[in-house]
Structure formats: structure tokens, C-alpha cells
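Support request from a user on the community tier.

User writes: "When I paste my C-alpha cells into the form, the page sometimes reloads and wipes my input. The last time it worked, I copied everything first. Here is what I submitted, just in case something in the input itself triggers the reload:"
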């Protein structure tokens, strides 16, 4: 049985780099916001200090088995959900696999902490009137300030960087990063001597201990990584933001004949098991690139509660993501350090693509035999990133969300694989990778543009044929940034919020 409520001014769906930023900006402007997040609050030093009552630990020890995976979708089958408390969702289709996460704070708990401007020059120019690279720059600056990000430098004295590891290698070189790099971590004032601090918002956290490597892709229990719950959500709650965790949105319904409520948001509260119908004047979708598309497509083509959006699902891309695993036993234990360790590529006259890499986190907490833990200490993951053709299509089928993407249509993947083969030839060490792309940066499908003929949302982030419905995450990006996208997603969300606030004030 569905229950209804009074009309909410703004409902934000998702609490990642899009949802957390847009909700915080609106709250700062005095606008009432309810944020819905399908994942749980995570048990960290920070959330305990903030008095968050219901939390779920990150997967460690035996819970690595029971809480690592939230859901799995295999080709041609419906999505299978294992536990509402799981950290990762894996969507495997015939041409691409997508990995995303589920927590209050979204992907900030599991990303590498790298923050960069787009690698594509003039990234925002030429897509829609009123959106420009120069116009977005203040939003980038504001997000970096909010996150307290530190610019990468030797002064941080980070161990196990690629610059240290390959300094004397005849096979591998380490080019400088493409543009400035910021790191979303709380570093010790004195390198190597982390302390526990309480920030200006009264949130307690531990400075990152790079020797422990416990602040990586399985979360940051001590708070060394600056996740979005720390930077935006808890401070916004103290100003009035209402956050409902473990509240999964099933569909969005466009209403007619009600001047106050333009949409009904149908949700399942996983705390109580109840179905609810929330009425809203405005809905901002920021559920993450993959889940935003799933929700909008399900609403239009499954539940039939939305219509129009002729370009929904088109221009889906992977941001050139490529992942592999590399045995580097000759370098000893690789675990100390940040999740990502810096750029590298095969040495030689050829213009090989730049790759990144890092070690697996928290290995001592894996429920594995000791010999296997020792082996994992000497293995690093590698990743390529770039700009693919962005020609994939996401659609709704009888089995749920379906993605059609062919990596062979994008020269970036062939180039990265050629660079990987060059590394294998020069080092004699095998690198394992899959045939099809594995992406953690799904992009597009609800792209921003000049008109409904080519795009889904306008320069304000508002869906062309659905007033009051917005997209504020990677699904709306008009192109691929070609580098880590978190900062660009956050800047877009900040822009969407600024436009919303300006229009609210004008009216």
C-alpha cells in the first residue's frame, strides 16, 4: 500500500557528486530539500561523531563476502539484488560492464580521490547557450574549496608512487600529469604522523595513514578520504536538509491538474518495507550515470509514468575506461600509499597512452588465505581513460536496463590495448584484462544540449519537455572529460543549483 505526503519543494534523488552538491547549494539558499538515497549511511569515525544513528560498516573481514555486492545483472537476465546494504552494483552487458556504488555519499566512498579538470580543451563550449568553460570555472573552484582538496606535490611524501617505482626503469617512463591534480584526502600536517581532528563543522575524522592503505575502494572508515557526507551532507543536514537513506526510488510520475505538485516519486523505504508516494514540485535526478538512466527509462518505458524525451538513452559512453591487473612482484609490497599512484606508460619512441595504477586496499582485512594475501600485495590494478565514441544506447527491456555499446567503434580502446601490449613486451610481465570495457565512469544518455532535437536537458539541467525535472549528474554531461570526472560532475551540479536559485529569486 502506497502512502502519500504533503508537497515537497525539491526532491533530490541520489547523494553522489551530483546530488550532494546540488542539495547543499539549495539548502544554503534557503530552499527546502528532501534527499533520497537507496544506500545506507556508512559507519565511519565521521558519521559516529555526527550522531548518525543507523549505519552499516564498509565490507571488511567476513562482511567482505556478505556486504561487498549489492546487485548483479548478467546479459539477458533481470537484475539480482543480494542485500540492500551492499557497496557495489555490477551491470554486465554484452559490450560493456558497469560498476557503481551505493551509500550516502555515493561514489565518493569508493573513488580514487583524484580530481582534475577535463582533459578536453574548452570542454563546456558550444553545447548550449549560457554554458561555457569560463562560466563553469567558478563552480570548479568552489567544489575544490568545499572538499579541502590538496594539490599533488612531492611535499606530501607519498610512498609507492610511480615516479619512485619506475625512476630507473628502462621499460617504463612516468610523464607528468595532464594538468593540475588535486587529491581529496585529509593529509597529516606532518607527513607520516596522522592525527585525529575535529573540523569547523564539528565532524571528527582521522588524517589519512598512507602506510595502512585503508582509505581506498572499499571505503574510508577513518575518514581520511574526504567523502561527500563529510564535505556536504552532514553540514547541510544541520541547516535543514532531510536525508532518507535506504530509500529507493522505483519511478517518477508526471502529474497533471495540480499546480503545487508536478511529480509523484514512488519509493520503497527499505527500513520499513513500505511503498510511498512523495509529491514534489521539483525533482532533481542525480542517482549516478547508470542509475539515473535506469530510473528515467523505467519511468518512461516500463511504468509509463513519464513520456517524451526522444533522446533519452542515446550518446552513452564509458569515458574511455579500461581496467587490468598486473603482477609486479619484483617491486615487493605495493600496498602502502594512496589508491592511485600516478601515471606511467611504456618507454620508447612511440606515443603510447598514459595509464594509471594502484594497489588493492585493506588486504589484511580480506577473508583469504595468507599466501593469497601476500600475492595480492604484489599485484596492482591498471587503468586507462580517455574519450570514446560515446555512441552507446541505453534502453528498457523486459529484463530491465539494457546497454548496447561496442568498444571496437572507439579507437581509444585499441590504442590503450596497444600501449598495454607494449608494456608486456618491454617488461616480460603479463597483464590481464577483459575484451570489453569495464567502466566506473558511465557518461551521457541524458545529455545537455541546445534543443530537444539533439539532447534531453537544457542549459539549466532541466528536461526539455518536463518542467521541474532535472538531471544533475554524469548522465547529463554533453561529452566525456577524458579524465577523472568527479570534479566535472560536481561543477555541473553546482551550476544546475545556481541556475535554479537564480530563477527562483527572479520569480
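"...and here is what came back when it finally went through:"
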Amino acid at each position: 500500500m502506497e502512502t502519500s505526503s504533503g508537497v515537497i519543494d525539491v526532491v533530490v534523488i541520489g547523494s553522489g557528486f551530483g546530488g550532494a552538491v546540488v542539495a547543499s547549494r539549495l539548502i544554503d539558499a534557503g530552499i527546502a530539500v528532501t534527499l533520497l538515497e537507496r544506500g545506507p549511511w556508512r559507519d565511519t569515525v565521521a558519521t559516529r561523531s555526527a550522531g548518525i544513528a543507523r549505519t552499516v560498516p564498509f565490507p571488511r573481514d567476513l562482511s567482505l563476502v556478505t556486504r561487498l555486492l549489492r546487485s548483479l545483472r548478467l546479459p539477458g537476465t533481470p537484475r539480482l539484488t543480494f542485500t540492500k546494504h551492499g557497496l557495489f552494483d555490477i551491470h554486465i552487458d554484452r559490450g560493456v560492464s558497469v560498476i557503481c556504488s551505493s551509500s550516502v555519499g555515493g561514489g565518493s566512498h569508493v573513488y580514487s580521490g583524484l580530481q582534475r579538470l577535463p582533459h578536453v580543451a574548452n570542454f563546456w563550449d558550444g553545447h548550449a547557450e549560457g554554458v561555457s568553460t569560463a562560466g563553469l570555472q567558478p563552480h570548479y573552484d568552489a567544489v575544490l574549496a568545499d572538499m579541502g582538496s590538496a594539490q599533488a606535490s612531492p611535499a606530501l611524501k607519498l610512498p609507492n608512487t610511480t615516479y619512485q617505482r619506475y625512476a630507473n626503469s628502462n621499460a617504463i617512463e612516468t610523464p607528468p600529469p595532464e594538468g593540475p591534480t588535486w587529491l581529496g584526502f585529509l593529509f597529516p600536517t606532518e607527513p607520516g604522523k596522522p592525527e585525529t581532528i575535529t573540523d569547523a563543522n564539528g565532524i571528527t575524522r582521522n588524517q589519512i595513514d598512507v602506510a595502512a592503505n585503508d582509505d581506498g575502494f572499499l571505503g574510508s572508515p577513518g575518514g581520511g578520504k574526504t567523502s561527500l557526507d563529510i564535505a556536504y551532507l552532514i553540514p547541510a543536514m544541520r541547516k535543514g536538509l532531510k536525508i532518507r537513506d535506504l530509500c529507493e526510488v522505483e519511478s517518477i510520475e508526471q502529474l497533471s491538474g495540480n499546480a503545487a505538485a508536478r511529480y509523484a516519486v514512488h519509493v520503497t523505504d527499505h527500513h520499513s518495507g513500505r511503498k510511498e508516494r512523495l509529491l514534489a514540485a521539483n525533482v532533481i535526478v542525480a542517482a549516478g550515470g547508470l542509475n539515473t538512466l535506469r530510473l528515467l527509462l523505467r519511468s518512461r518505458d516500463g511504468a509509463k509514468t513519464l513520456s517524451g524525451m526522444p533522446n533519452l538513452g542515446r550518446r552513452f559512453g564509458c569515458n574511455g575506461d579500461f581496467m587490468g591487473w598486473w603482477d609486479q612482484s619484483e617491486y615487493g609490497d605495493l600496498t602502502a600509499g594512496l589508491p592511485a599512484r600516478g601515471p606511467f606508460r611504456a618507454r620508447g619512441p612511440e606515443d603510447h597512452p598514459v595509464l594509471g595504477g594502484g594497489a588493492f586496499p585493506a588486504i589484511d582485512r580480506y577473508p583469504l588465505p595468507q599466501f593469497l594475501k601476500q600475492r595480492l600485495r604484489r599485484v596492482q590494478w591498471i587503468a586507462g581513460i580517455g574519450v570514446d565514441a560515446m555512441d552507446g544506447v541505453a534502453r528498457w527491456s523486459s529484463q530491465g536496463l539494457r546497454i548496447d555499446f561496442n568498444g571496437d567503434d572507439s579507437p581509444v580502446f585499441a590504442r590503450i590495448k596497444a600501449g598495454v601490449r607494449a608494456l608486456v613486451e618491454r617488461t616480460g610481465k603479463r597483464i590481464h584484462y577483459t575484451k570489453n570495457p569495464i567502466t566506473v565512469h558511465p557518461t551521457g544518455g541524458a545529455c545537455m544540449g541546445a534543443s530537444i532535437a539533439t539532447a534531453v536537458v537544457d542549459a539549466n539541467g532541466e528536461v526539455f519537455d518536463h518542467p521541474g525535472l532535472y538531471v544533475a549528474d554524469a548522465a547529463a554531461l554533453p561529452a566525456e572529460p577524458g579524465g577523472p570526472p568527479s570534479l566535472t560532475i560536481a561543477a555541473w551540479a553546482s551550476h544546475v543549483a545556481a541556475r535554479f536559485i537564480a530563477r527562483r529569486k527572479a520569480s
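Agent notes: The reload is a front-end session timeout and is unrelated to the input. Residues 2-506 form a domain with the FAD/NAD(P)-binding domain fold (CATH 3.50.50.60). The CA atoms of residues 156 and 190 lie 9 Å apart. Escalated to web team.
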